[in-house]
Amino acid sequence: MSRIFAYARVSTVDQEPENQIREIEAAGFYIEHHRIITETVSGSRAIAQRNGFSKLLYKMEKGDVLVVTKLDRLGRDAVDVSMTVEKLEKMGVRVHCLALGGVDLTSSAGKMTMNVINAVAQFERDLLIERTQSGLSRAKAQGKKLGRPSALSTEEQQLVREKIENGDTVSAIAREFNTSRQTIMRIREHS
Q1: CA–CA separation, 36 vs 38, rounded Å?
Q2: Is 4-117 in CATH node 3.40.50.1390?
């Protein structure tokens, strides 16, 4: 008989995983308390680096079922989520996601759903890159200076150049202008 596990993740300490547990129970899954894993960790952290999920992997066996409320509980990175589902499938564990209609992500329909989600995520990333590049090109064409502002004003940079020419050390100049050695070296390189 299949054992059912639940994984409920929240990102911050002021959030509660209890709502996710209630949602899983409301969907008809009865899960014994010791098979519910909750943790507070950012979704951007790789799933392999999450202590709670690592404990879950240790507990689960072939034939078990893992239930999550939403795909983003497993992670925000589509590649990481896909690899996690694939790993669970190789272990013989089925993964049910309530937000996707309870579909088993290790089934044919679940794999297709994951592929569509991954394709949409990649499309959104590509669009974001295109918009960013377009915006940068437009800003350059308008003569805007891109990047982080210089730590030193134009006048200060000129004084730095003069001190370098006079033989002052990079460290001494950095201390005098209350800035990093790297800033002084950058000015020296672009002289």
Answers
A1: 6
A2: yes
For the chain, the distance separating the N- and C-terminal CA atoms, rounded to the nearest angstrom, is: 74
**Tokens for 97?**
């996601």
Query: Do residues 115 and 107 lie in contact, with contact meaning Cβ atoms separated by under 8 Å?
Result: no
Residue 92's closest CA among 74, 106, 79, 111? Answer: 106
| Catalytic residue (choose from 11, 44, 82, 107) | 11
Tokens of 161: 């150049």
What is the number of other CB atoms lying within 10 angstroms of the CB of residue 119? 11
Kindly give the confidence (pLDDT) of every residue in the chain, 191 residues in length, as a single tens digit, with 9 standing for 90 and above.
789 999 999 988 888 999 999 999 999 999 999 999 999 988 778 887 889 999 999 999 999 999 999 888 887 677 778 888 889 999 999 999 998 888 888 888 888 888 888 788 778 888 889 999 999 999 889 988 888 888 899 899 999 999 999 999 999 999 999 999 999 999 999 87
Q: From CA 161, how far away is CA 144, in angstroms rounded?
A: 25
Q: Is 180 a catalytic residue?
A: no
Encoding tokens for residue 19? 């709502």
